[in-house]
Design goal:
This protein is 71% helix and 0% strand. By secondary structure, the protein is an all-alpha fold.
Length: 264
């Protein structure tokens, strides 16, 4: 228990240090956050206008789509605000920048992921949490469920990003693959799964876990079914485990770049 508390304090201190570093340039910080909020709002407004014209599509209405965007953007923002190197991991491996983290007395993967913060991700969190509180929250239970579901969806995204980035230990450079995979994941996760059928739907529930980035959390909030919630948490845990397992396996074949960089 003491070790867990120490680890949480360490993670908090790292996040605080990254945030303080970002706030050194307040104008740039504010512009990135505001730009991301505007970007999210523009994409979400498309669906709002769409459902004004077509009130229901395969059982989904505007309220469900707003909730989908709230969960999706908050989860993505949470993952990248705390683990800003998630999108950069393939590049870190390709450029032999893991040397820095190998020298530090912490789990290599965790330290690598939290070594950087994505400032724009804070805009995602503000937008997602804001529209959920304003349009979709219906009592304390929904708020608590939203918090659990957002954390689990963030874990799904992070596990998938680590999993695909770890291919860089076997390939010369997996940056393009990682960028493509995470972009497709984020794009498909903002669509209601009711519009997909057959093999594509199976893929979105398994190899490309887009359903667990938004659709399944929305169904949990909509129906309050324990089975959906357990499935969401189980998939999140599975992708985190798979990602970390492949990273550890790849780390055995990692070749140092002999970097002499010292981080103060």
């Amino acid at each position: 228990m003491r070790r867990l508390g120490y680890t949480l304090r360490w993670l908090h201190a790292y996040f605080r240090a990254n945030l303080q570093a970002a706030l050194e340039y307040r104008t740039s910080f504010a512009s990135e956050v505001i730009a991301m909020i505007i970007n999210d709002a523009m994409w979400a407004s498309f669906w709002v206008v769409f459902y004004e014209r077509y009130p229901a599509v395969n059982g989904w209405q505007r309220a469900q789509v707003v909730t989908l965007w709230a969960v999706n953007t908050t989860a993505f923002g949470l993952a990248n605000a705390f683990c800003g190197n998630g999108l950069r991991l393939a590049g870190v491996i390709a450029r032999a920048e893991l040397d820095l983290y190998l020298a530090l007395p912490r789990p290599v993967l965790v330290h690598t992921l939290i070594g950087r913060m994505s400032i724009s991700a804070l805009g995602d969190i503000a937008f997602g949490a804001g529209i959920f509180a304003w349009f979709a929250a219906d009592g304390v239970v929904d708020v608590l469920l939203f918090a659990v579901l957002v954390v689990s969806a963030a874990a799904v995204w992070l596990g998938f990003a680590v999993l695909i980035s770890s291919a860089g230990f076997w390939l010369n450079n997996a940056e393009t693959l990682t960028q493509l995979g995470t972009t497709v994941l984020m794009s498909t996760s903002t669509f209601p799964m009711t519009i997909f059928h057959g093999g594509m739907k199976l893929v979105l529930y398994s190899l490309l876990p887009a359903a667990f980035m938004g659709f399944v959390p929305v169904e949990v909030l909509r129906r309050h079914e324990l089975s959906w919630l357990l499935a969401q948490i189980g998939v999140a845990g599975a992708f985190l485990w798979l990602g970390s397992a492949l990273f550890r396996r790849g780390l055995r074949r990692y070749e140092s770049g002999n970097l002499l960089t010292v981080r103060l």
